[in-house]
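Researcher: Checking consistency across runs. Here is histidine kinase again:
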Amino acid sequence: MRIPAVLARSRRERGSLARQLLALQALVLLVVVVALGWFAVDRARGAVEDRAANQARSIAETLADSPLVRTAVVGADPTAELQPYVEQVRADTATSFITVLAPDRTRFTHPDPAQIGRPFVGNIARALAGETFTETYTGTLGPSVRAVAPVFATGSSTDVVALVSVGITVSAIGHDVTAALPGVLGVAAAVLGVGALGSWLVSRRLRRQTHGLGAAPLARMLEYYDAVLHAVREGLLLLDGDRTVQLVNDEARRLLDLHGDVTGRHVTELGLDPELTATLAQQQLAVDEVHVSGSRVLVVNQAPATSSGRSVGAVVTLRDHTDLQALTGELDSVRAFAESLRSQAHEAANRLHTTVSLVELGRTEEAVEFATSELAVAQRLTDRVVEAVEEPVLAALLLGKAAAAHERGVALEIDPGTSVGVTGIPGGDLVTIVGNLLDNAIDAALAGDPPREVQLALWQADGRLELRVEDTGPGVEDPEQAFRRGWTTKATGQGIGLALVAQAVERNGGTVAVRSGPGAEFAVSLPVRTAVPR
């Protein structure tokens, strides 16, 4: 598809939709990854602090239950016995400090020997009450996560003789969190990379599908195309590979007499003429096919839509040829009338030559008799038609068809009881109905055995115009299919004449019937629109 220059310029100025989407996705992905990274670090810090608190609690409870500690804290010199032991435990467990203290807060041990003998800084009330607890507190070594456990006298579960405090400083915890950061950041970087790759692939596909256009040009193109689709005077119907409607413009709705939202409906659910439905369902190439749909004659063009060599649907265009068909029928009638006049002029010239020759031979009486007899025959037919038919278009049509039938060797007999006043029925519809029926009857009579005749009767009764056309042809084999588009008994026919008759009859609220054998009889009944005085 060729992109208009204005859209290409807009694409260069504002960037393609794919590029904008890629930038937006990258920003969203970065925000999400940063938020998740922060959450992961926070969770990691919390996990490290919980692990440190559990570790400190376990060590404190273990030391508080140690017989060595219980005996030393009530001995003469608790520091001398406990300091080496406690420092060894602290080194082995990688804790920041282990302090054993008396109930009055006097330290027996400390990583800094200068702090031994000084009062312990922190909360000990719960431990003095016999409960082991953990807390975050700022002591002489800075902020730390510590656990304080009571040391009970030997053989007692209530007599607290000392306390054990085990702590891990926040700086040490920070070192553990820092050690975990590479893994967290690595995962975040991997997520960011995979997300960026996915966003790039999506934007690349989107760029191909949107031809590199930006959001504003796409919106403008949609508005233009929508306006064009609804403004054109040609029906447009888009079908997908499943024969469901994807798009239908206003003209197609009017031509096909569609109501409501038909998008997503199958073509068989649209209530169209069976032949038109079959054409749409086949999704094959169709060029200027004529279809009768309801009260309209439609010219249908259909082109299959393909993608990567396979059919994905069809594009159907519809043109209304109802008025054109009516005008064509009237033109055919005028042409037939003109042809009849030519034939009559030719016959008149022959008769004139014959009459002149008789006069020159001195046979005047025979010349007068010959001229007057031929003139009387033609005049009687003209007088009968003009007197019986007040519709000028219909009268001209009958005279023309009579002359054309005579020239082709078929006798067109107009019933003496024929009488048609002003009917109010459109002249084009009368030409379509009567002209097609007579043409078919004349063709059928020519296909039969002599005598080849067509009989026409027209009369009005009970506010209706009645029409009957009979011929001496071979008859209609399948009367039920006679008015279907495409049905014909002619080798070169298109099968639309009787379909147009049925359409014109239906448009005027009438009925049409056919009887076969021998010959064929077509009967039409139409309501008149203007009362005819009697």
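Researcher: Does this match what you'd expect to see?
Model: One thing to look at in this run: Residues 1-13, 486-494 have pLDDT under 50 and may be disordered.
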